[in-house]
Amino acid sequence: MADDQRYMQKYSDIETHNLRPALSVRLLRAEQGKGDYIVYVIWVLDVRSGVEWIIRRRYREFEVFRETIIGIRKKLQNVDFPQKHLAAVTDKSVLIQERLNVLQRFLRRIAGIITLNSHHPSTIKLQLVLQRFLNVEENLDMIILRESDPATHLVKTVEVFMHNVLHMTFMDRALQGFIENYMGNPIDDIHRRWSEEEACKVAEEQKEFLDRLQNFLFEALFDDCVDIITSVIQESGAHTIPNKVSELIDQMTATTSSHSQSRAAQHRSSKRAHSTASDDGSGLSLVNPHSHESETIDELINLSSDEFRCVIRDAVRRQVETEIYLATIGRIDFIMQQVYEAADRQFYERTCKLCHQPQSYFDIYVDHISPSSWQASIAAFKAITQKTLPCDKINALLEMSRGIFQLYRAEHPDVSQPLSADDLLPIFIYIMVQAQLPSMISLLNTLQYLCAEDKRMSEAGYYLATLQASVTHILEADLRRERPFNAQLSHGPQDRFDEE
Description:
The protein has 19 helices and 3 strands. The protein has 500 residues and is mostly helical. The chain has a 3-stranded antiparallel sheet.
């Protein structure tokens, strides 16, 4: 506690740009420490930068943290906190699980108070103590670096807004109600033998709630998100909103609500009025053409109405999954691992047998063979497992798949014919074999169960189907044949997303 007080005294006058506006925090599980004690694994996401990390804390460290914040704001002693010993609990596993649940609610409540009470005189001190507890300072360099990337700035600003909305009291109660009902009794889950059909039902229940919440927030707050993006464009250096953006806002908001078109027109009218003296008459904003912000705005202008809406939907989805999926990840992971343990082992053993085979063995055409053996794509595929949220894993799969086409062009500069969708399947199989992921089947089914509907019907959904087809081919290949993939790979998924 004394250390925390010295920390506050030292940093109470620091510039507030190092205070993070939105931190998502979730307790993932409890683990046995190096000694005879339990540590709690905490996932932390800095929403505005997208940087995430894992920390581990003992119960005693939570106690010190609580004592410190009560010293700053006495009313926080009323926030529920688990006792060191529960008189009615004799089973250690039950005690740990109950403590995990209460600590989760406690930490989320403190983070929510900081988010929603930013003008309280003691909030900065609370924020400093929370950031120290969550190791924000150790990750600050990466946060600043990632936050400086203009390509993600617009989306992250919307995500911060959604984060704040989901921490409002009425939303928090709705989320906690679903989570508590969904989690049920963890002890019963542990002693139950789950079937694949039951696992599917559990995942579908969560997906239905995720989809409903995403749709509700998107429809209810779409206009606010447009306002936020408009504001960010202006703050980036623009003196006016470009005509094309104004038209795009009109186009989008007109399909969302009857009053939104006039609202967007007011935006356009007022911004043009301010720009009379500074606009050159072309309708373009006076942004430094060499700045990263200008490039990002140009990308925004070139988006269609549907693409713009997808950007906002993705931002909403990420925060919805942060609040729901991460709160239930222990149950989902446990069930998936139990149901698909044998299939995971079988798939991994197959990849071990196949990993020494050349590219031609997997029916990759000679003209398509990669001199680097697709090493960049293999690394990108392995990196999918480092993502936590299903939406982030699916986006990583999308980027990895697009990277295959980019790598092919870089390594075959003299070839005019691009890769087709049918060419992609054997390359996908080769990459999966070389990656040798130990829980590939569990991962695949989690993504299929929890993939958002709009993503399933998009380019990302096509690559998810290609991933499924690749897994099937690997499992069903007759390894006794000299070319087991030759007869199999006639076609991948029917819908095509050929390289343009």
